[in-house]
Every structure is written in structure tokens, then in C-alpha cells.
């Protein structure tokens, strides 16, 4: 009897031991399932990140295409600007030997008139090559007269001597340098800005530094020094013509 009971107890103990093994396996399987779930979640997250990276790469490629297009356009504009700058510099160099004279009647003999003006400003020894009228004829006023000298130095001497013009003889004569369209545009804009600031009460004037129009603030002393009556010859101060308004200024 005792032997049979012992055998039964041993059998039960063996079964219980197997149950412990099964429980251990179940726990291991549960942990494994949990780990698999975590790995699946991680894979999904990494997949989303990969999708974002792929989208970012695509966006970068598109931006790269746009940037290449803009760079090509900028290169075209740069080359065009270089060409325009070269043309502008070349045009200015050519015009350096020219002067523009305003207020010369078209009915007179132009070359004789120019020779007389050069003589009156103590430059009778300078010879010019030829003259030509600029623009279309109008009944309102004579067209500007372009005088072409042999070199830029002769033209510069004429410009520096324009203050010697006898106003009793040539009351409306003006001598200016020959400007390119870009220079005339810059002057027009500078005059407009000067007038705007004057209307606001500023005491300003327009000066030229290296042929570039620059607005400067006048001191009281410089305003008195630059007045027309002080700068005019003594014998002609009473006959100074009224200055042209900004609306009547010619492009030159």
C-alpha cells in the first residue's frame, strides 16, 4: 500500500514538474510576443522615418532643379550686365571728347559761332573736328549742338572755361558734357530728389563728383559763395538770366 502511494505521489510530482516547465514556456512565449510587438512598432516607426527621408530627398532634388535654373538665369543676366557695363564705359569714353552747347540759334553759321565762343573764353587755339545738331527740329527752341573735338583734353578745357562766357554776348548759352542716356537718367533722378528735399525745407544742391550727380547739404557760406551774382563777371551781374526751372531743364 505504501509502495503504491509512493508511486502515485511520484507520478503527481512529475506532472507538476512538467506543469512548471509549461508555465515557464508560456511566460517565455509571452515575453517573445511582447518583444515581437515592440520590434514591429520600431519597424513601423523606422518605415515612417524612411518615407520622410525619401520625401525630403525628392524635395531637395526639386529644389536643386529650381536652383540650377535660377543660377543659369543669373549667369545670363550677369553676362548681359557685363556687356551693358562695357557698352556704357565705351560710350562714355567716346563722349569724353564732345561737349554740348545749348542756346545757339540754328539760323546762324554754327562753326563760326563755335569759333567765336572758343575765342571769347580764351580757347581760340583749340580746333574742333565737326558739329551736329541733336534731336528733331522744333519751333520752341534751338536743338542742342554737339561739338566734337580731337581729344578729351580739349573738350575738358572747354568745360573748365565755361565760366568765362561773356553773358552780355551769350546770355542763354550753356556748355555741358556729353552724357549717355544712363547719365541723363541719373541726373534727372538726382534733380527730382534735390527738388523734393528742397520742398521739405532742406538747403541742398547738386554737385558732380567724377561725373556722378551727388546731393550735398549747403552751409550758409557755400550758399553765398555759389550765388549767381557772386560767380558772374562784374560787368554782367545785372544781366544774369533767370535760372531754368527743373521742368525746363534739357536732358544735357
From TrEMBL:
Residue ranges, annotated region (Disordered): 219-252
Domain of life where this protein originates: Eukaryota
Start-end of Polar residues biased regions: 241-252
Protein name: L1 transposable element RRM domain-containing protein
Species this chain originates from: Photinus pyralis (Common eastern firefly)
Organism taxonomic ancestry: Eukaryota, Metazoa, Ecdysozoa, Arthropoda, Hexapoda
Amino acid at each position: 500500500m505504501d509502495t503504491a502511494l509512493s508511486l502515485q505521489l511520484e507520478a503527481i510530482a512529475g506532472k507538476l514538474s512538467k506543469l512548471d516547465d509549461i508555465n515557464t514556456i508560456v511566460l517565455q512565449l509571452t515575453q517573445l510576443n511582447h518583444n515581437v510587438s515592440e520590434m514591429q512598432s520600431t519597424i513601423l516607426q523606422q518605415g515612417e522615418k524612411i518615407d520622410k527621408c525619401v520625401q525630403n530627398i525628392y524635395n531637395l532634388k526639386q529644389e536643386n532643379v529650381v536652383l540650377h535654373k535660377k543660377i543659369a538665369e543669373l549667369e545670363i543676366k550677369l553676362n548681359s550686365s557685363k556687356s551693358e557695363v562695357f557698352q556704357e564705359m565705351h560710350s562714355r569714353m567716346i563722349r569724353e571728347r564732345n561737349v554740348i552747347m545749348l542756346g545757339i540759334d540754328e539760323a546762324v553759321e554754327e562753326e563760326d559761332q563755335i569759333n567765336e565762343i572758343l575765342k571769347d573764353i580764351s580757347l581760340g587755339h583749340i580746333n574742333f573736328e565737326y558739329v551736329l545738331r541733336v534731336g528733331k527740329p522744333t519751333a520752341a527752341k534751338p536743338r542742342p549742338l554737339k561739338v566734337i573735338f580731337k581729344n578729351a583734353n580739349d573738350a575738358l578745357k572747354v568745360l573748365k572755361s565755361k565760366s568765362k562766357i561773356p553773358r552780355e554776348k551769350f546770355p542763354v548759352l550753356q556748355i555741358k558734357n556729353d552724357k549717355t542716356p544712363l547719365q541723363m537718367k541719373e541726373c534727372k533722378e538726382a534733380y527730382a530728389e534735390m527738388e523734393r528735399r528742397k520742398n521739405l525745407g532742406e538747403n541742398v544742391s547738386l554737385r558732380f563728383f567724377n561725373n556722378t550727380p551727388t546731393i550735398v547739404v549747403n552751409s550758409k557760406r557755400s550758399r553765398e559763395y555759389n550765388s549767381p551774382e557772386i560767380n558772374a563777371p562784374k560787368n554782367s551781374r545785372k544781366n544774369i538770366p533767370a535760372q531754368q526751372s527743373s521742368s525746363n531743364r534739357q536732358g544735357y
